[in-house]
Amino acid sequence: MGTPFEDSSSPAALPAITQRRLIGTRQLSPVELLEACIARIEAFEPAVNALCATDFQRAREAARAAEAALMRNEPLGPLHGLPVGIKDLEDTAGLRTTYGNIAFRNHVPAADALIVERLKAAGAIVLAKTNTPDGGAGANTRNAVWGATGNPFDPRLNAGGSSGGSAVALALDYLPLATGSDLGGSLRIPAALCGVVGFRPSPGLVPNETRAVAFSPLSITGPMARSVGDLELMLQAISGADARDPWSHGPRFEPQPMPDLSRLSIGYTEDFGGCAVDEDIRRSFRDRIDALANRVGRLEPVDFPYGDADRAFDVLRAESYLANHLDAWRERPQTLSPNVRANMALAAQFTLADGAAAGAEQARLARALAALLQRHHLILAPVTPVSPFPWSTWYAEQVQGRPMRNYYHWLALTYVITLTAHPALALPCGRDQSGLPFGLQLIGRLHGDAPLLAAARALEALFADDPTLARPRPDVAALRTPQPALKSIVTDPPT
Question: The whole model's pTM is what?
Fold first, then answer.
């Protein structure tokens, strides 16, 4: 076995906060940092297939311009000179954006998405697009345009989704920051499976001007990074109100000081009272709870009234997919992935009464979680119910012997929180019983994003001192051999 990050002296491996500080003090050149990131991409990308279109030429031009601005003592943005990856659901001007769909194989947008606009305005350099399933449907990053993305800890396994390409790129130090989006867990699940940080903010903190159902809180855009501090740096740049998103509100995000863990009250649940969870994951979660028992002020289990959360999510998710894909469903259904088609078929079965019942159940769940968070500063839960499985398997068809109703039912640990609209973060916390990354889900009060992230930063610092709880790192020596099958995948699910 090689040592993890055998070239950890590379500037690409430094925290984003450190990279930005060294750039500001002229101890690190934006050009040097970019070339270090490109070198890592060229070394390991054939093994994992995390990226879609790359933009090396324009990125090099932008890095040279960033260095020139630095030498001229011009005002610098908070992300000046930092390379970023953009999920392939988000438009990038002049750079191919396919949404993981074969109908958009050669689509080149004329304008940037709002989140990309803000990243560039803060001085970030777009380096590449990151892989995603068709339309972001599913927690397995594979599509008919770019192929499958392999887990950096074992490329034969699932990297999660739908922000899987971003998670893998971060885990392998391709870049310090990346974008993601989350409807049923697409920021949190790949972060957990790849050992990085993914944050689903409260609706409106990061404006999303592309949401088809404008007043639905389900679809959220957010940041991904390798640490909580790096994620907060990015969040400062992409947050704040914008008139194009009716949910958006308030000023830009500002981090808060870390709390004293001995004064924190934390609730926890293994399954929210209704989610299927593998016994090995339950054991891993209990180990983390045991490790925290004497290090926080109060730690106690909570009872969550799960009720009909699955049905509510089915209906509200179907509404979102119907709004996004109705034209394609009518005019070119053969271009849609099996997962998208499954959502559309489900949507056709629901009535207005189903929608009303789903909305009422969503309100009940949100109020129940809010009540629990009046007694606790945050709630802990697992992120995923299983360890990463082979990417050739579309989804977890069973969890602990319990059959899953559809391709996303195994994601209930995250989508139940989506329904409540509360902010939630996936925090790396060692390895599970299978030796693969384990992620803790931290859930905070609605619009309490800053206190949640401050608590996450404190827990991250605590975990860093314990080798069994610290963020795991992939063994890059094992990634020297390309995995050509990742580029050529079967596009139909098993029957």
Answer: 0.96
Name the token pair of 24: 């500001």
Q: Where are the alpha helices (DSSP H) in 49-147?
A: 56-71, 114-121
- pLDDT tens digits along 395-450: 999 999 999 999 999 999 999 999 999 999 999 999 999 999 999 999 999 999 99
In the 3-class helix/strand/coil scheme, how is 284-345 assigned residue by residue? HHHHHHHHHCCCCCEEEECCCCCCCHHHHHHHHHHHHHHHHHHHHHHHCHHHCCHHHHHHHH
| DSSP sequence for 111-130 | S--HHHHHHHHTT-EEEEEE
Largest CA distance in the chain: 63
Catalytic residue list contains 487: no
Q: Which of 186, 219, 227, 239 is catalytic?
A: 186
Out of 162, 166, 239, 387, pick the active-site residue: 162
The answer to whether 228 touches 205, Cβ cutoff 8 Å, is no
All residues at 6 or more sequence positions from 220 whose CB lies less than 8 Å from its CB, including other chains:
181, 182, 183, 187, 200, 201, 203, 206, 208
Verify whether residue 248 is a known catalytic residue: no
**Residue 263's closest CA among 229, 313, 312, 299?**
299
Measured over the CA atoms of residue 200, residue 201, residue 205 and residue 211, the dihedral's sign is positive
Please report the beta strands in 373-471, taking only residues with DSSP state E, as ranges in sequence order.
378-382, 398-399, 402-403, 424-431, 437-443
CA distances from 144 to 44, 255, 270 (A): 22, 40, 35
Query: Comparing C-alpha atoms, which of 297, 316, 302 is closest to residue 362?
Result: 316
CA–CA gap between residue 294 and residue 88 (Å, rounded): 43
Decide: helix, strand or coil at residue 425: strand
Q: How many degrees, rounded to 5, is the angle at CA 142 between CA 83 and CA 492?
A: 165
Dist. CA 192–CA 424, nearest whole Å: 12
**Residue in 29, 87, 320, 387 annotated catalytic:** 87
Mean pLDDT of 4-21: 83
What CATH number belongs to 19-487? 3.90.1300.10
Phi, psi dihedrals of residue 332, rounded to the nearest 5°: -150, 60
**What number of residues does the chain have?**
495
Note if 162 is an active site residue. yes
Whose structure tokens read 């093994």? Answer: 47
Domain ranges of the chain: 19-487
Tell me the pLDDT tens digit for each residue of 119-138. 999 999 999 999 999 999 99
Rounded Cα distance between 15 and 225, Å, is 9
Mapped onto helix, strand or coil, the DSSP state of residue 268 is: strand
**What's the one-letter identity of residue 375?**
R
